[in-house]
TrEMBL record:
<keyword id="KW-0732">Signal</keyword>
<dbReference type="GO" id="GO:0008270">
    <property type="term" value="F:zinc ion binding"/>
</dbReference>
<protein>
    <submittedName>
        <fullName>NHL repeat protein</fullName>
    </submittedName>
</protein>
<dbReference type="InterPro" id="IPR050952">
    <property type="entry name" value="TRIM-NHL_E3_ligases"/>
</dbReference>
<dbReference type="InterPro" id="IPR011042">
    <property type="entry name" value="6-blade_b-propeller_TolB-like"/>
</dbReference>
<feature type="signal peptide">
    <location>
        <begin position="1"/>
        <end position="19"/>
    </location>
</feature>
Length: 372
């Protein structure tokens, strides 16, 4: 026993010594005075009904009434989660939850719905992105070839489609979206903005009521191209094009458009007519699939902060909206409350609480309560 204890202590000591030679982590935690602080709520959401289980949760959004909506991928369930669906059943687990679910602020499931045939639309082949407008309408997208943006009533009745699968190609098509990642609405102006996305390299705007094309732009507000992009390198000149994917688009209260250029590790800011204003780099040493997966603006009237979901590094970074300065960072890769595996989307409610959605093998949602 003494020998084993000694060997363990020796191995532990070697491990510590070896760890001291490792480079520092990409995300060094920081916490500036006055920066918002959060605490994970391990009991949110409440248990799902009906033996439901979630697949990859590709989208999360808050509604004006305070409820939280998610969009997940039922087809991403793994084999051992499908036993109850087989004939005869092989196990008690499970039933795929409907792809669209509405939760109360307390985490109770209020309703869920799926594709209804005969309404004149095609369901996204790979669910990706959700948004709720001021009237409570639900916007969904998909990032597979042919997927467009779809608008529904809160109970799942189809209203409209934005983008047409008409065979047109490229980042300057005025009709066809190519694997759109995210969307948001300017309800006062009657416009829907799309981060388009996994195939194209642009932001495009449509009229909410008619679906008519309004305008589009690429990185730095320039006309996008579809040239093959070089792999991102932290020390190289900044790309003049958006990467694939252009992963989110958000609007501020004071009329600016924030775009997640995921693999280029940056946020670009524009006026609503597409004029470039500035950019912020976030964890610029990040390779793989990038550091800027999604963002939301803080709930205060001035929207002082941006909360950036960083899927590659498994963390949330808080930066000041005016100058991009990092003031806080928290989270790490893992499966415990407050940890992340591919944090994909982020949402915020009127109280400043954050909600996160995870894809890959994360396959869950979490709530982070604003503490101060």
């Amino acid at each position: 026993m003494r020998m084993l204890t000694g060997l363990f202590a020796f191995a532990l000591g070697c491990g510590v010594a070896a760890a001291q030679n490792f480079p520092p982590p990409i995300g060094v935690p920081s916490d500036a005075p006055g920066a918002p602080k959060f605490q994970a709520d391990p009991y949110w959401p409440q248990p799902l009904p009906g033996n439901w289980v979630l697949g990859q949760v590709a989208g999360i959004a808050t509604a004006p009434n305070g409820n939280i909506w998610i969009l997940h991928r039922p087809l991403s369930l793994v084999d051992d989660e499908k036993g109850a669906q087989k004939d005869p059943p092989e196990t008690k687990c499970c039933t795929a939850a409907p792809p669209v679910i509405e939760f109360s602020p307390e985490g109770k499931v209020l309703r869920g719905w799926a594709f209804t045939a005969g309404q004149g639309y095609e369901w996204p082949k790979n669910e990706h992105g959700i948004h709720i407008d001021t009237e409570g309408n639900v916007y969904l997208g998909g990032n597979n070839d042919g997927d467009q943006i779809y608008k529904f009533t809160p109970d799942g009745k189809f209203i409209a489609q934005y983008g047409k699968e008409d065979g047109s190609k490229g980042s300057n098509s005025t009709t066809r979206l190519w694997k759109p990642a995210h969307m948001t609405t300017d309800d006062a102006a009657g416009e829907v903005y799309v981060a388009d996305g996994y195939g194209n390299q642009r932001v495009i705007v449509f009229d909410v009521k008619t679906g008519a094309y309004k305008r589009h732009w690429g990185a730095y507000g320039e006309k996008p191209t579809d040239e093959k992009l070089s792999a991102y390198k932290p020390d190289a000149a900044l790309s003049k094009q958006f990467s694939n994917p252009v992963h989110c688009v958000r609007l501020s209260n004071d009329g600016f458009v924030y775009v997640c250029d995921r693999a280029n590790d940056r946020i670009q800011v524009f006026t609503k007519d597409g004029k470039f204003v500035k950019e912020f780099r976030v964890e610029p040493s990040t390779l793989q699939n990038g550091s800027v997966w999604d963002l939301v603006l803080s709930e205060d009237a001035a929207q002082k902060y941006l909360f950036v979901a960083d899927g590659a590094n498994g963390q949330i970074t808080t930066i000041q909206r005016d100058d991009g300065k990092q003031v806080a960072q928290w989270g790490r890769h893992g499966r415990q409350p407050g940890q992340f595996k591919w944090i994909h989307n982020i949402a915020i409610d009127a109280k400043g609480n954050l909600y996160t959605a995870e894809v890959g093998f994360g396959r869950r949602v979490q709530k982070f309560v604003r503490k101060e």
